[in-house]
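Let us practice reading a record.
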Amino acid sequence: MTIQRMDNVGIVVDDLEAAIAFFTELGMELEGEAQIEGIVADQMLGLDGVRSAIAMMRTPDGHGKLELTKFHTPAAIPVGPPNPPPNTLGLHRVMFAVDDIDDTITRLRRHGAELLGEVAQYENTYRLCDLRGPAGIIVALAERIG
């Protein structure tokens, strides 16, 4: 038996509207929003009294999705330093291919994004960078140049 596909990556955020705006600016599309609560959510997550709001974002090609989640109850729990470095164990980053890395950085900065280092060039193939995005996650960008 094999998997069928990767369905989505879940990201817990503290400000759902700001996260939606950030990923919309990046070029993702809001597929839908929902309130999640009840016994199924409690059972799946192993928590009691789950009440959350989610927003499903998809890439323009429809193949990549992010599920942004704002927990109302129980409250989200911060772990580690507020802005963990790229070598922190666990989910490292989410990377997106973009057509203009400089324009994308400029637009995302209006939503609080900060470059972790600088835009680097890999051979004559890609321009790459890491940004700090909503809830401290690292969003990587790759622009094919060659």
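A brief commentary: The chain is about 20% helix and 35% strand.
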